[in-house]
Amino acid sequence: MHIAFLMQDTGTIYGAERATLDLVDGLLARNVSVTVILIHETRLNLKTSAFRCAWEKRAVDLEVVEVGHAFSRNLMQRVRAISQTQRISLLHTIGYKADLHGGFATKWGKLVPIVSTVHGWLFRPDPKEKFYHYLNCWALRRMTRVVVLSRYYEKYVRSKGISGERLVRIPSGYPSRGTHESTGAAPDRPVVLGLLGRLSWEKNQRWFLDVLVDIREQCQQPIKVILAGTGPERELLERIVDERGWRDWVEFPGFMEQHAFFDQIDVLVSCSVIENLPYAILEAMSAAKPVVATAVGGVPDLIDDGQTGYLVASDDRVVMAGRLVRLIVDSAHRAELGRAAREKLAREFAPDLQVQRHIELYQACLT
Predict the structure, then answer these.
(1) CB 59 within 8 A of CB 30
(2) Cα dihedral sign for 250, 199, 270, 6?
(3) Contacts of 284 (CB under 8 A, 6+ apart)
(4) Rounded to whole angstroms, how far apart are CA atoms 113 and 361?
């Protein structure tokens, strides 16, 4: 079996990129041959690409196709040629640009079966994004199979006319960090609340800064906040923190490697307005760190409210603050939730399960 992956080179490793890298690592471990085709848009002026570097370190055939515009006839022809010359068994696409170009290149599965994974949409009310969303759904209806990660997107994609055996839910897999338990903050240091991800509107860190006002009113115990990540809202968030005089206990370290981040925090906070199956929460479960998160998208697939973490309505600032205060003051409860979350991860989101289900999906498409 020889699988080709087609996706855009974003330059950075976000959730979709990370999930694809992990899946390919699992396939390579099962002796599946892999070719990766990266769409490199010259108009983006990427000086370096962490995503491309990650592929160059793996045992895959890497093809980088340069395009000058969002849609390219040359890209479709190149994908078709690679499929033929390398005898690709199946094309796996990620993202609307890859879906459209891969679909036309394979004549929508007539030349080579084509599978697409939906990593989610932002649902912003921007006319351009709405148009791309329409095109993406149009393309998905013509795929051999469509993979979704969560029950939320399974329901949504089904509402767009994709159902039956063509729609498959395969959650991301993530390994457990082992048996080390989260014992909470030492008596001589503050409890650390951490947010990990792109500093952008959909992650809703601005709302969390308002939640901090409520926490400070309800709880006298010292806390520290780490807002890790980069993005377009960093300057605004830092200005709010400066205006409130919080610089001595709210930090903006920029990008952090996940192990370093989770070694420093006691509770992960996720306050997004839309998510699919966020890696930050999977990573917290792996590290046995409790999570308080807004109940959006696929997050309820990961967190059992009150058992492996807490779910909060995306507009309920009072409850969010209350749940966090409880975890700040109760280290035993933090450890209990973190331990239960790690057990759920090992039980339901093991990497081997994800890889095996993809191999079974590929085989079904080829028979």
Answers:
(1) no
(2) negative
(3) 262, 268, 290, 291, 338, 341
(4) 11
Partners of 334 in beta bridges:
none
Q: How many other CB atoms are found less than 10 A from the CB of residue 361?
A: 18
SS3 category, 3: strand
CB 113 within 8 A of CB 144: yes
Q: What is the pLDDT of residues 238-262, one digit of tens each?
A: 999 999 999 999 999 999 998 999 9
Burial of 280 (0-12, 13-18, 19+ CB in 10 A): buried
Which residue, among 48, 51, 46, has the nearest Cα to 5 in the 3D structure?
Answer: 51
Query: Mean pLDDT throughout 141-161?
Result: 95
pLDDT score, position 230: 92
Per-residue pLDDT at 183: 47
Local structure of residue 47 (DSSP, 8 states): S
Q: Is the pLDDT of residue 20 over 70?
A: yes
Query: Among candidates 109, 39, 51, which has minimal Cα distance to 78?
Result: 39
164 pLDDT band, cuts 50/70/90, is confident
Structure-derived torsion over alpha carbons of residues 234, 239, 241, 244, reported in degrees to the nearest 10: -160
- What is the H or E stretch that residue 13 is in? none
Domains identified in the chain and CATH numbers:
2-173+350-366 (3.40.50.2000), 191-348 (3.40.50.2000)
In angstroms, the CA 175 to CA 345 distance is 8
Query: Which residues 6+ apart lie within 8 Å of 127 measured at CB?
Result: none
Average pLDDT score over residue span 270-274:
95
Instruction: State both tokens at 246.
Output: 């919080």
Beta bridge partners of residue 267, listed in sequence order: 193
pLDDT of residue 179: 52
The answer for residues whose C-beta is within 8 angstroms of residue 263's C-beta and 6 or more apart is 287
What size, in residues, is the chain? Answer: 367
Lowest mean pLDDT among 38-42, 112-116, 235-239: 38-42
Contact predicate 203/271, CB 8 Å? yes
- The 10s digit of each residue's pLDDT in 177-208 is 765 554 455 566 899 999 999 999 999 999 99
